[in-house]
Fumarylacetoacetate hydrolase family protein
Amino acid sequence: MRLVRLGTAGAERPGIQTEAGVFDVSAFGEDYSGQFFATDGVTRLRQWWARHEKECPAVPEGTRFGAPVAAPSKLICIGLNYADHARETNATPPEEPIIFFKATSSLTGPNDEVIIPRNSGKTDWEVELAVVIGKKASYVEEGDAMNYVAGYCLHNDYSERSFQLERGGQWVKGKSCDTFAPLGPALVTPDEIADINKLRLWLTVNGKKMQDGNTADLIFKIPFLVSYLSQFMSLLPGDIISTGTPAGVGLGMQPQVYLKAGDVVECGIDGLGSSRQELKAWSA
């Protein structure tokens, strides 16, 4: 299934995306929240859809997509998880995953405007595969880890590099600005993806190709990441793990290239759809 959330920011309603279009499933009675995933919501929704598909209204074209997961407790990111990205930033590929967080307040819809923060001079892009947790995971074995995955999403991990790298402290400062986590358009369940380890990721800025990678090149694969993270914290239903970005970020270019107001960033992952963000300067 392809789960989407639709409508005005803060008042999104649940939907399903199919080959025939996008349909409003508000009558199902639940948003795609942690509680939904914790109670085997995908299975229940699948069964409900089989009975009520013909009754669900089609969603008009141009309707806004929100982030496909409502109010996750955590947005966990993995740094330097592609060897080519580590090389371009003059970093040594890690022996264990580098973990940081993005504030969940940075989540936004896949096609919403991205706001360049006040005092920013180095806002950058990062196309990433995100994993959504389907049930509570604590001390999970790697061989069992995929049983805890509800689905996958496209994520653009925007980063303000001067906040991240030049201001001291944790990377979270450069990762958590409002609108810095466009997610979606859809949460795609695992049965829709033939091989999660062979998906192309790409990103353009103003139509110019910047990133063109493949999940085959992940240093730490998804089962390992789920198991590894679960050794340090409980992963709750609806939590998001963003698995890292391939080479081609502005930080790694010579000279470095950063985003400015009016720039348009588009990105996508095979099977997960694409997104588009226009950059806008912060204003009071």
